Amino acid sequence: MTDPLPSGATVGILGGGQLGRMLAMASARLGYRTHIFEPGAAPAADVAHEWTQAAYDDDGALARFAAACDVITYEFENIPAPALDILSAETPLFPSRRALEVSQDRLTEKTFLSGLNLKVAPFAAVETAADLPAALAQTGVPAILKTRRFGYDGKGQARIKAEDEAAAALATLKGAPTIAEGFVDFSMEISVIAARGQDGAVAAYDPGQNLHRDGILATTTVPAPIPASLRTDAVLLASRILTDLNYVGVMGVELFVTAAGLVVNEIAPRVHNSGHWTQAGCAVDQFEQHMRAVTGWPLGDGARHANVTMENLIGGEVARAPNLAAEPGVQVHLYGKAETRPGRKMGHVNRITGPSG
Amino acid sequence: MTDPLPSGATVGILGGGQLGRMLAMASARLGYRTHIFEPGAAPAADVAHEWTQAAYDDDGALARFAAACDVITYEFENIPAPALDILSAETPLFPSRRALEVSQDRLTEKTFLSGLNLKVAPFAAVETAADLPAALAQTGVPAILKTRRFGYDGKGQARIKAEDEAAAALATLKGAPTIAEGFVDFSMEISVIAARGQDGAVAAYDPGQNLHRDGILATTTVPAPIPASLRTDAVLLASRILTDLNYVGVMGVELFVTAAGLVVNEIAPRVHNSGHWTQAGCAVDQFEQHMRAVTGWPLGDGARHANVTMENLIGGEVARAPNLAAEPGVQVHLYGKAETRPGRKMGHVNRITGPSG
């Protein structure tokens, strides 16, 4: 085993939202200082040693930030490539550039996953309206158009219920490069949170079942009600992705459960909302696991000792937190965001529903 | 239920060590900002929004700190009374002054506990060597002399193995007001971590068994191997102390298990090293529990869902952390202290040893 970064070293985190905030606390638990890079509001900075408030095209600020950090990681995948060039010039950055490049673009990602012989929804690139007929022949109808880049929580998407709606749907995406995806007939969505260390070891948590509301994750429940064989499939599949990418860190892999097995919906090269349950259910949660990986510690084994349901508090739902906190086995996580807005993730609770089983 | 402090409010913490650090992270989890007051080095400041580095006799700094906080709490009990006067003039301070006054002075504490009809070791005040014969008649020999104030981790103590050593033992304590305590014939030391909310509700965690090395806590194991009736006694006894003090927050109560039942060793009006296991074993750990209490949230119920052994990493033992982290079910907590010194608490690990049972 190589030695981890020494205590007191500085971990840089790109992004100052709730994931950065929980990563910063995990970094502190391993004895590190955290330095946040975030142009906008940064709840993560409240628990960090330092905060560089600068834009991703401020080359000087990026270089100074990188020089101040012993390792850099991130809470979101849409980091501009020129910024990455500066950041990773002298300072190790995990997960790797390749993981970012693959997951920043839905077309690249689907092509990569298909190349690993993993099942994905039928897909086709759409540049202009002229591409639509061939694309829909590939995907079938109904289909969904998604911008190749910068989509999250259902944003940058347009549904096509019938072929003659396609051009209008494409127009709502305002000329952004787009991918058409066919629908997958699935019984449930699950996700598996997996990690790979600098030594190549892989660990995965039990898959959880995800329920969405208005395109935003509402709850994740572990264990997902699936047969043991599918749990194993999910974990092996995640392991294949991590290993092929020579990945270091935690990844979220969203999967559809279908009659024909698991179909990969998308991957996120970072800690993932559907892994928040690990804070209550595991000795080593996904945030500590990610920090262990990027700073060279051995990974935790991912063992789960409790059944948990994670519930997001979206927008005004955050007002329910004190009542939820009064219920048995409920752990509260609020993100310290100054303003409550509809659709905004304000916090979550983890409810322990029993011993692991 | 009264409403808790609103998200974004500021919690002041007196003391910037590892307890303050873990309290600061719990404060952040509830959506608050943390402001640390600490004259010396402050690992807690690495995870806090602000740090006032000033002395406890800097009245201006104390007043400015108090004005910037919506509520104030503390990680250690030896806060000078004049500082408390300034801090609590305009800002609520929990746990209360009375809890501090009782626990700052071993003589006051023992007198208080006896007044509740709780068993304590035989004790007597010792001001000068002239008091020794009467005191030792009260306590028996062997006995132990302890400074009434400012002792921790075995510091400020001198053993008396025979009566003719008493004067020399007293001299090593350099004239500090002292208490003589008799020895208690105990089979084990346990502690119970209990909390009381602003609404008067009390919750307690299962007692853990404590093992010391060189006067410093080495491990805490839950559950403590004691009969259910003693667990109940421990919890009820803690509840009596909290309620009598009109206490708000978490308290650590150290107890000796004897043939005649439980004897109270000491109380600490704060989160306690022997409660660190709750980070791995409970949905709501002692740090969140304390912050819930002082900010007006409902308490968690204290339920435990795993068996845990907490092991302190003292001085150079911190170098073992990466190897320990590689073992199953081990959660790491390092304190980010710049300098490793013998006897210094550098971190701890929580090891989940099985489901609760």
Automatic annotation (TrEMBL), chains A, B:
Listed GO MF terms: 5-(carboxyamino)imidazole ribonucleotide synthase activity; ATP binding; metal ion binding; phosphoribosylaminoimidazole carboxylase activity
Gene3D superfamilies recorded: 3.40.50.20, ATP-grasp fold, A domain (3.30.1490.20), ATP-grasp fold, B domain (3.30.470.20)
Chain ranges of the ATP-grasp domain: 110-295
GO biological process terms held by the UniProt record: 'de novo' IMP biosynthetic process
Reactions listed under catalytic activity: 5-amino-1-(5-phospho-beta-D-ribosyl)imidazole + hydrogencarbonate + ATP = 5-carboxyamino-1-(5-phospho-D-ribosyl)imidazole + ADP + phosphate + 2 H(+)
Pfam families xrefs: ATP-grasp (PF02222), PurK_C (PF17769), RS_preATP-grasp-like (PF22660)
Any one cellular-component term (Gene Ontology): cytosol
Enzyme class: ligase
InterPro entries: ATP-grasp (IPR011761), ATP-grasp_carboxylate-amine (IPR003135), ATP_grasp_subdomain_1 (IPR013815), PreATP-grasp_dom_sf (IPR016185), PurK (IPR005875), PurK_C (IPR040686), PurT/PurK_preATP-grasp (IPR054350), Rudment_hybrid_motif (IPR011054)
Keyword tags: ATP-binding, Ligase, Lyase, Nucleotide-binding, Purine biosynthesis
Keyword Ligase belongs to the record: yes
Binding site for ATP: 106, 146, 151-157, 181-184, 189, 212, 265-266
EC number(s) given by UniProt: 6.3.4.18
Pathway linked to the protein: Purine metabolism; IMP biosynthesis via de novo pathway; 5-amino-1-(5-phospho-D-ribosyl)imidazole-4-carboxylate from 5-amino-1-(5-phospho-D-ribosyl)imidazole (N5-CAIR route): step 1/2
Assembly: Homodimer.
PANTHER family: PHOSPHORIBOSYLAMINOIMIDAZOLE CARBOXYLASE, PURINE BIOSYNTHESIS PROTEIN 6/7, PUR6/7
NCBIfam families: PRK06019.1-2 (NF004676), PRK06019.1-5 (NF004679), purK (TIGR01161)
Similarity comment: family membership: Belongs to the PurK/PurT family.
Function: Catalyzes the ATP-dependent conversion of 5-aminoimidazole ribonucleotide (AIR) and HCO(3)(-) to N5-carboxyaminoimidazole ribonucleotide (N5-CAIR). Catalyzes the ATP-dependent conversion of 5-aminoimidazole ribonucleotide (AIR) and HCO(3)- to N5-carboxyaminoimidazole ribonucleotide (N5-CAIR).
Protein name: N5-carboxyaminoimidazole ribonucleotide synthase
The species this protein was found in: Roseicyclus elongatus DSM 19469
